Q: What sequence folds into this?
């Protein structure tokens, strides 16, 4: 936590990546101060703001005004909202509009939105003129604590999600915690699941703190800023140790193997299951599976499930509305996500709260038996 | 030259970029040995070969056989030949075919062709699964001495050339000097102009050696291997010092500001002027312009022109067939290529043979007067 600085209601987390180090500023009202923050770090830039229709309705005008007040010329590109925007056709459209405006390599591309906008815009910023400056203004809790840290950008193809992209670090991230007040309770909870994950990876005291203070985090104010800052710091530490996902970074996938399988099994239908809910169920399953393998106490799985339940997150497959495909189909989704080598899988398991680790020899037969046991039908 | 190793007819140049360092192997017959060279460095990979129709007719089957003999499974993607292939639609097509074949991040994308294939394929390799392994097998002299070293990849858009791309380093470059025997004399000369450029940047003894041995280089054999290796080493040295084009790398643009303007002025019509010819004329102009600014002796410009003439390259605007636009239009092309700041341009100039430097305060009025003086009409 050494690089985290806090004032009453604002925090700064530094992501230490040598010449590509950058700051994440966290606090309420940052969109209104975006112009001065950007101008201070990137003097003389012009900017292309990329956002979606929903976010634009609330925050585009304030951001444009803030840039203008700081003397930053900008253009705005407003895309359709939703996952379908993360495709090559929108990459081409945004690239062409940036070039139409004669923006140069030293100018900035600003992503104003959730994960879809951040992932797409980061990819565009990484490839136009072989890399322009990139500023992230994440407007969902999930984007603030997860996708805006780490430099993964990308789009979907017919073959799957995030299959095309680059590793590209922003020059600055502005996480305006005030915008989270306009999120639905469900969206906020989904982002919260990722926060809990950081505690469960390797910060047991953060998990305990969330158990005690989650109501304050949901209510906003200093506790929310602190929790977001700690989450960003946790991810930044992992990314700094393993920028291009060689090994250690895999721990960030705690709960995600089961979670992705459930998202795929529900056809990515956000009415049935959003990503963070899949992560919540997947994280509980990862703890239960670790207990089944005699790696951890079943009490830890109970404790994790109890916390997710208390904030209103789902914790088991039966919590998902509608019918799920049978266990062997779920197993196929897992095998697609993770390469199976001679019947063995790589899996993030745990020895207890905050003691996760990467196991690369999990028999797929064990996973299937476990899924059969937990499957609601 | 420390990292260059030579045997009778093969050389190895190491591009020193830390964890991303790689070898360039140079010599005849390397396509036939590609399989074993790749298998030795990237054990267990599968491969996607990307090439164009012209190159495929000569070299695809030998490359496929070589990979097969080394136990490397491969698919082949054959694209239309020509600059129009460097576009987003082909990026999408190649990406989809690689994903169709279930190639993973650790598998290799192999570019078999000239600069167009290398630039497009490198871009695809850099973005599919956020970066796969990339092997270059350049089949033109220009690609062997220029575009296959340095990690610049990219495609063209409606706004101009190479405006979208990434910096992405290959894992291995195989420069098969035998394939150059099938190039037209004109193509070989065009690549040769870039070799001469390396001597003129900062290796006066290499320029002198080329003056004495250019017939041997054109004839093939050991002198050709040596000249290509020295060119790759020269570019590798510059790239290692400045991978992402902050400053020093700009020296590689010696002759290119005038050259690009002439290419644009002839609508990139390869019948009238190919890139290397533009570089030859541009390099002579850069030396003449330096003399006009009293930076270098006019004798140096004469010497450069005399050498280009002796190998059959054009050296002045009048050598270009057909009419050229007037000087002020040429000046506009230069201003588009280089940003003009308060009437001043950044230009690569020289104090003599092998003494080039970057000047960032060249008055555009001086450039225009010079163009008027040298313009044939």
A:
């Amino acid at each position: 936590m050494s690089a985290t600085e806090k004032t009453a209601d604002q925090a700064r987390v530094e992501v230490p990546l040598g010449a590509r180090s950058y700051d994440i500023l966290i606090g309420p009202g940052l969109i209104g101060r975006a112009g001065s923050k950007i101008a201070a770090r990137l003097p003389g830039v012009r900017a292309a703001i990329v956002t979606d229709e929903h976010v634009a309705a609330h925050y585009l005008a304030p951001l444009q005004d803030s840039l203008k007040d700081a003397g930053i010329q900008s253009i705005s590109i407003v895309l359709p909202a939703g996952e379908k925007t993360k495709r090559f056709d929108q990459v081409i459209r945004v690239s062409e509009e940036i070039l139409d405006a004669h923006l140069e390599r030293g100018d900035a591309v600003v992503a104003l939105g959730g994960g879809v906008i951040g992932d797409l815009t980061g990819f565009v910023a990484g490839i136009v003129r072989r890399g322009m400056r990139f500023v992230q203004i994440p407007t969902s809790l999930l984007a603030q604590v997860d996708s805006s840290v780490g430099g993964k950008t990308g789009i979907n193809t017919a073959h799957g999600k995030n299959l095309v992209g680059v590793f590209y670090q922003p020059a600055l991230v502005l996480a305006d915690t005030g915008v989270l007040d306009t999120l639905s309770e469900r969206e906020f909870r989904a982002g919260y699941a990722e926060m809990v994950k950081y505690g469960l990876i390797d910060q047991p005291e953060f998990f305990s703190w969330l158990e005690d203070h989650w109501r304050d985090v949901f209510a906003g104010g200093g506790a929310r800023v602190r929790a977001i800052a700690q989450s960003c710091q946790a991810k930044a530490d992992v990314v700094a140790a393993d920028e291009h996902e060689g090994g250690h970074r895999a721990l960030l996938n705690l709960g995600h193997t089961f979670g992705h399988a459930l998202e795929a099994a529900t056809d990515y239908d956000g009415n049935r299951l959003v990503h963070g809910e899949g992560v919540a169920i997947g994280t509980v399953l990862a703890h239960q599976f670790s207990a089944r393998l005699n790696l951890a106490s079943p009490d830890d799985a109970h404790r994790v499930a109890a916390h997710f339940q208390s904030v209103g997150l789902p914790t088991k497959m039966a919590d998902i509305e509608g019918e799920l495909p049978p266990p062997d189909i779920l197993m196929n989704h897992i095998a697609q996500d993770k390469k199976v080598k001679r019947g063995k899988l790589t899996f993030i398991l745990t020895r207890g709260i905050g003691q996760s680790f990467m196991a690369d020899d999990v028999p797929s037969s064990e996973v299937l038996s476990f899924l059969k046991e937990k499957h609601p039908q």
